[in-house]
Amino acid sequence: MNNLQIFNNQQLIPLKENETGEVIISGRDLHEFLGIKTEYRKWFPRMTDYGFIENQDYIRVSQKCPTPGGEQEIVDHAIKLDMAKEIAMIQRNGKGKQARQYFIAVEKAWNSPEMIMKRALEFANKKVIELQDKIQIDKPKVIFADSVTASRTSILVGELAKIIKQNGYDIGQNRLFQWLRDNGYLISRKGTDYNMPTQKSMELGLFEIKETSITHSDGHISVNKTPKITGKGQQYFINKFIENEAKEETACN
Q: Which of 70, 172, 178, 188 is least crowded, fewest Cβ atoms below 10 Å from its Cβ?
C-alpha cells in the first residue's frame, strides 16, 4: 500500500510524497479547497511574500496543456506540509481552519514510529534493488575489463575485434575498421594515410603507429605503417561497444 493511501482514502486535500519522503501538496489543490476567489497565478506570489523560500518550502511545477490555439503552460507548486499549514492559518476562515487541522493530523500520523519504520524499510529495499540493477549493468564492463587485463601492450585492430566478439558483441576485423572510420577514429580518405589514426585519436592516446622497415630485393627500403590500439584505447573502445550494446537492448525492450 502506498504510504499516503491511508490518508487519500479519506482525503480532504490530495497528498503526495516526494523523493525525500516528505508530504507535499499541490498549490492549486490547496487554492481550490480554500475557495480563494483570486486567480492562482496572482494568489500564490502573495503567499510567498510571507517568507517562504523557493526550492526549500516549495518548488515550481509546470506542464504544457493543449488549447484550441496551441499549447498553454500551466504553473503549479509542490508545497511542503509546514508551508501548507501556515497558508491555511493565514486565511482566517472556516476552510483555512479545516485544512490546518487536517494537515496537523496528517503530520502526526506521518511521523508516528510505525510510519517512520515503514518508510525506512521501503527506502532500504529501494536501495537494494538499485544496487542489484547496477550490478547487472556493470557486469559486462567487468567481463570486458578482465579481457583487456589492463595490459600496456598495444594490439592490432583485428585482435581487438576478437576480444570484443568473445565477450558477446558480434563484430569482425573489417566491420571494426569500418566503425572506426565512420566514427572519426581512423582516416577514411583514400590515400597514403588511409586507415591511419586521426588527430583526435592520437591526442586521446587511443592509437600508436607501428613503423616497420622493409628492405626490398633491389635494395630500396620502404616503411610500412600499422595502426595499433594502446591499452588505454582498448578500454576506451570496449566501453563504447558496451554502451552501444546496452542501448540496442533497451531499444529492443
A: 70
Amino acid at 18: N
Q: Which helix (H) or strand (E) holds 130?
A: helix 113-148
Residue 201, classed as helix, strand or coil, is helix
Q: Measured between alpha carbons, how far is 102 from 179 in angstroms, rounded to an integer? A: 63
Based on the number of CB atoms within 10 Å of its own CB, is 160 exposed (0-12), middle (13-18) or buried (19 or more)? Answer: buried
Q: Tell how far CA 38 is from the center of its chain.
A: 39
| 100 and 12 Cβ atoms separated by less than 8 Å | no
Which residues are registered as beta bridge partners of 76?
61
Pairing of strands 221-229, 58-67: unpaired
DSSP letter for each residue of 11-34? -SS--EE-TTS-EEEEHHHHHHHT
* Residue (of 77, 95, 94) closest to 24 by Cα position: 77
124 three-class SS: helix
The reply to whether the predicted model has a pTM over 0.70 is: no
Specify the higher pLDDT residue, 182 or 10: 182
Backbone angles phi, psi at 221, to 5 degrees: -115, 135
181 Cβ contact list (under 8 Å, min separation 6): 187, 188, 195
Question: How do residues 148-159 score in pLDDT, each as one tens digit?
Answer: 544 568 899 999
Q: Supply the DSSP symbol for 54.
A: B
Q: Which residues pair with 78 in a beta bridge?
A: 26, 59
- Cα(132)–Cα(144) distance, rounded to whole angstroms? 19
| 8 Å CB contact between 12 and 102 | yes
